[in-house]
Amino acid sequence: MNVISLLLGRRLVIGCSNSIKFKTFLTISPIFELNSSNFMAFQRINHLGLDVPDVWPSLSSSNLSCNSNSHAVDKKNATIIDGKEIAAAIKSHIADEVTRMKKSIDKCPGLAFVLVGERNDSHTFVEIKMKACDKVGIASSIVELPAESTQDEILRVVSDLNSNPAVHGVIVQLPLPHHCDEEKVVNVVSPEKDVDGFHPLNMGNLALKGREPYFIPCAAKACIELLLRSGIELVGKKAVVIGRSKVVALPTSLLLQRHNTTVSLVNSFTKNPQEITREADIVVADVGVPNMVRGDWLKPGAFVIDAGTNAVKDPNGKHGFHLTGDVCFEEAVEVASAITPVPRGLGPVTIAMLLCNTLDSAKRAYNFV
Amino acid sequence: MNVISLLLGRRLVIGCSNSIKFKTFLTISPIFELNSSNFMAFQRINHLGLDVPDVWPSLSSSNLSCNSNSHAVDKKNATIIDGKEIAAAIKSHIADEVTRMKKSIDKCPGLAFVLVGERNDSHTFVEIKMKACDKVGIASSIVELPAESTQDEILRVVSDLNSNPAVHGVIVQLPLPHHCDEEKVVNVVSPEKDVDGFHPLNMGNLALKGREPYFIPCAAKACIELLLRSGIELVGKKAVVIGRSKVVALPTSLLLQRHNTTVSLVNSFTKNPQEITREADIVVADVGVPNMVRGDWLKPGAFVIDAGTNAVKDPNGKHGFHLTGDVCFEEAVEVASAITPVPRGLGPVTIAMLLCNTLDSAKRAYNFV
User: Fold this and answer.
1) What is the least distance, in Å, from the CA of B115 to any CA of chain A?
2) Less packed terminus of chain A by CB within 10 Å, N or C?
3) What InterPro entries does the record point to (chains A, B) (predicted)?
4) Residue A318: which pLDDT band, with cuts at 50, 70 and 90?
């Protein structure tokens, strides 16, 4: 049974993902993602309502590709982080732990997805995650709802999953259809099953020193994992995080602070992003603009994590496009000491961290050490 | 009835603070405050547990006082922000609003304090806030519990206040006695009455772009208020926040980001804090070390907010000490374009913002526009 056929059912829960076939493994995101936050009138007493959208420099043709011809292979000096290999090592450890749990207490971690509507990219994301669950022995399930589902219907599904003891993680795949209030839906996911780590309670506890959220967003955990596995000492290092998504930039900046890194946050209003970035030992790029971070933005020896996954039209590409990151890889590789490529960089490790969060949740639920 | 006599009662609720006399208005905080977070063993999979205490440069005698003799009055060029005057203007507006609410719907905002134990400084803080409530017509009340109260007793008091419709703000005065779990107590305060803004749900919603917390921590609101009242354009400006307390530094850094400022966060592990600070258009110092930020740390024309309130022994002082900030005022005033003094700087505006949060909460509860 594949995901397309699941769409035909109004609501269908599959016990495990091992029968799902995959259409594609390519992760596709919009080239230029505008934040949908509304520009609200400024109020003098209440200082919120200032969430103007991030508008990064417009895409000129020069941005779409960087100086891929300017380098020779022998000039490369950065270590290219193999995210897929690292993810495989983490997954192997998780699989061992899941096996140990099954043998010891006859229980298995469970991860449930809620998928509303028929967006191809959302389906692809969920498929990839379910396949990853399957490989390590985590029981994944999916609840599919048609795009016209009411918000109450979605909330009921989430509440059911919250109270299902076999489910240890609940992911509502975003974005939801426009008529749904994403904030309300995300808020209803139990913080104790919020393996994405996007619930404000978990984000607040991540921000607050001395507290522990139930879950840290997977991409942020993945960034730190990559740094630590590369032997980078974080304490006292300068990090620049470019962007401010809740998925990568915000939680990564909070987690880096908890590791006693000195963090600077570059946004689309920053006047001289390249100057600030050039001072950083660690750069995390999360803007959604292909090749925005050029080689001359980087301090020699910087550790560069590219969180961008931009689909750029390419008639020679397998699907009419190719994927590129937010960092001009060909230039950066000549300056940085290490860099995550796109694809095969941060993405696979992020998925491994989702499995890790789910395992942790099940361990907590069963008090399994 | 003064607060000392209140201590004799095991639990006593006062309807309004207007009968309370004040011992002193001096706010006393430890000179050198170590974060009490535990250093927990590092775990490879779960990357938390790294909250080592902030240890800022040790206090040398040269730190305790800065070059107060090096400047002449005519060399001063910074505007010295009169926090008391600004607070008075804000309070006047709040008083008008409270009057309007009383006239229109016969309701009054209510703020309740929970005070456990007999710390003089805590009593003083609460007295100051209650007097401020009284001046604008907000009904304040206090529940005093002896230091040996159990955590359950404290939690019951907080729960009662949560469900009391006449109470729109609940403040548990910190620190609590050592046997209490502050995190659990703060978590029980209803996010809708958390006028301090310290609840992780409110902090998370402050961190998450596009979301609105019920309340923003008062000192952070006060910082932005001071900047905006001074006509500072925040978008695209560089700000440096030194420190990371949940009271000032963390929420201020989050709020500055929401105002599209480029924020760098300096902590006690930052190797060259002065270099980073010297690049900032806006500096917020919140470290608890007297005079740590020297004149040569500042970019000429910087806007400096000093959130420190350090009691430094002084035999000539009225109470055997004098108050000083984290910024060497005498040096900074010659470099900055504006600076908040200590006292009479950020403190009074922070209290005004507490009143503002309480008024907002009552307006929300009564749907009063």
Assistant:
1) 22
2) C
3) Aminoacid_DH-like_N_sf, NAD(P)-bd_dom_sf, THF_DH/CycHdrlase, THF_DH/CycHdrlase_cat_dom, THF_DH/CycHdrlase_CS, THF_DH/CycHdrlase_NAD-bd_dom
4) confident
Closest C-alpha to A147, from A183, A171, A123, A129? A123
Give Cα A120 distance to the centre of its chain: 18
Q: DSSP for A307-321?
A: ---EEEE-TTSTTSE
B131 is catalytic: no
> Out of A47, A216, A356, whose CB is closest to B216?
A47
Give the distance from residue A278's alpha carbon to the nearest chain B alpha carbon, in angstroms.
13
Alpha-carbon span B302 to B74, nearest angstrom = 19
Average of pLDDT values for B102-128?
96
pLDDT greater than 70 at residue B241: yes
Residue A9 has pLDDT above 50, yes or no: no
Contact state of A236 with B276 under an 8 Å Cβ cutoff: no
Query: What are the Cα distances from residue B240, in Å, to B53, B221, B293, B347?
Result: 20, 16, 12, 20
Has residue B9 got a pLDDT over 60?
no
So what's the pLDDT on residue A63?
A: 56
Of residues A51, A209, A246, nearest to B37 (C-beta): A209
Residue closest to B301 by CA, chosen among B345, B335, B261: B335
**In this structure, what is the dihedral angle of CA atoms A202, B207, B241, B40, given to the nearest 10 degrees?**
10
Catalytic residue among B129, B193, B237, B299: B129
Question: Does B233 score more than 60 pLDDT?
Answer: yes
Q: Are A193 and A169 in contact (CB under 8 A)?
A: yes
Which residues of A form the catalytic set? 129, 173, 196
Neighbours of A331 (CB within 10 A): 21
Nearest residue to A195 (alpha-carbon basis) of A176, A216, A175, A211: A216
- Comparing CB atoms, the residue among B225, B244, B246 nearest residue A257 is B244
Handedness of CA B350, B354, B356, B357 (dihedral sign): positive
DSSP 8-state class, residue A341: -
| Burial class of residue B71 in the structure, from the number of CB atoms within 10 Å of its CB (0-12 exposed, 13-18 middle, 19+ buried) | middle
CA B235/CA B220 separation, integer angstroms: 17
Residue type, B176: L
**Are A260 and B246 within 8 A, CB to CB?**
no
- Express each pLDDT in B11-23 by its tens digit: 333 333 333 332 2
Residue B207 or residue A48, greater confidence: B207
What average pLDDT is seen over chain B?
85
pLDDT given at position B70: 43
Q: Which residues of A touch B35 (CB under 8 A)?
A: 209-210
Residue B196 is among the residues annotated as catalytic for this protein: yes
Contact B236 A269 (CB under 8 A): yes
* pLDDT band for position B155 (cuts 50, 70, 90): very high
Over pLDDT 70: what percentage of chain B? 81
Give the predicted TM-score (pTM) of the model.
0.85
CA dihedral B74, B79, B81, B86 (to 10 degrees): 120
Are A37 and B276 in contact (CB < 8 Å)?
A: no
Q: Between A69 and A252, whose confidence is greater?
A: A252
Percentage of chain A beyond pLDDT 70 is: 81
Cβ partners under 8 Å of residue A78, min gap 6:
A304, A332, A333, A334, A335, A336, A337, A338, A339
Find where tokens 């990064």 sit.
A56
Q: What is the interface pTM, i.e. ipTM, of the complex?
A: 0.85
pLDDT score for B317: 87
- Find which of B182, B192, B203 to mutate to test the A interface (most A CBs within 10 Å of its CB): B203
Across the interface, whether the CB atoms of B262 and A264 are under 8 A apart is answered yes
d(CA A146, CA B206): 32
**Per the CB < 8 Å rule, is B246 touching A216?**
no
How many other C-beta atoms can be found within 10 angstroms of the C-beta atom of residue B74? 6
B50:A207 CB<8 A: no
- What gap in Å lies between CA A124 and CA A141, rounded to an integer? 15
